[in-house]
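SAMPLE LOG
Freezer: B-3
Tube label: C17
Construct: single chain, 393 aa
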Amino acid sequence: MRWFITAVLCIATIWLGCSDLLEPEEMPVAVERHTPLKIYLQDQSGYMQALYGTDGVRGAQVLLKSNRLQQENRFTADTTGLVVAYGLISDTYLISASREMTPDEMEQITGQATAQIRLINATKGLIDLRADQVDAVQVPLFAVAGGSPLVISEIYGCGPLGSGLYFHDKYVEIFNQSNETVYLDSLLIAVVYASSYTGENFIDDPEYVHSSNVWMFPGKGRDYPLEPGHFAVCAADGIDHRNNAPKSVDLSGVRFEFYKRDAPDIDNPAVPNMQRILQDSGYDWLIGGEQDALVLAKISVDSLGFRNGRLLIPYTHILDGVEYLEDPSRLDKKTLNPQIDAGSTGGIEFYTGKSMERIAVQVNNRFLLKDDNNSSLDFRVIDHPTPEFHHSE
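STRUCTURE (predicted):
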């Protein structure tokens, strides 16, 4: 088994002294940065100290992705954990660093070659890197739980093209990353509490995700298997939406649907119903068309805390989480703690028919989906939803 150290530096803005503001429709001027950008990857777990007597994460693979130009630059950290990047184009950069830990290294540290640990940068906000800055930017890495066999693979919520205000074809999709069958019974899907509507912000809560929209998969333990490499869609309405919106999608054969029994909602008897735990408002399952955040969790409902009309889901029981924003570069607008998702996908307008899909990768000749706990790098926007399949297949 391979081990990962993943560091994510949210956003770094590099200015080269340009005084004129760009018009919105103008392309940014490509100007090289003359002062080298130094990035120091600093391990906070003590693992590198135990192995090599230093906090620097040697051998880390570093990706710098520019926001406006979408250019990618890759580097490898030296034995001190330092990356020196020359000649970057002026832009706003997303910086991600990763290093695989070998089983031998983990056994030296913990005595167990199979322990699952991931270190990520859990800092939110913006970092301003000036052209004349000479000090290295430190990227701290903090320990979080290891990878999950289940990930949120796609979120579709904006509504189809050319059908007025039709929005009943929303869905969230789950994928089994592992090489074993996983049972979905009693897992939770929760929409992160939308603090932007109330002025409250729980992103800094050190323990819990807050939600007033929580649903549970049916089943009593082994009723709903998800085979390795397979998808499971949970649809707002499990029907063929093309009958109402020609450019929508057929969801009549998906695995699950959200059905509110006390509302004028649609129920397809051929599709198993998700069980509502908490959602008082709306006639149907609700996610935002342009921005929202969702988590997948494994915990008994009876174990959840309850405060001010919201359920509290411990970070330690969250399998995966994804956030999407109207402007995915505005990570200062996040509502989901960076320990769960350090970035954001999105940038989709209402009623454009576009969807957000996790990027496919090949690992040891297996089809997997990218999962670096950073939706800025793990997801891409696609032109049409792909329920229970991947657009690359």
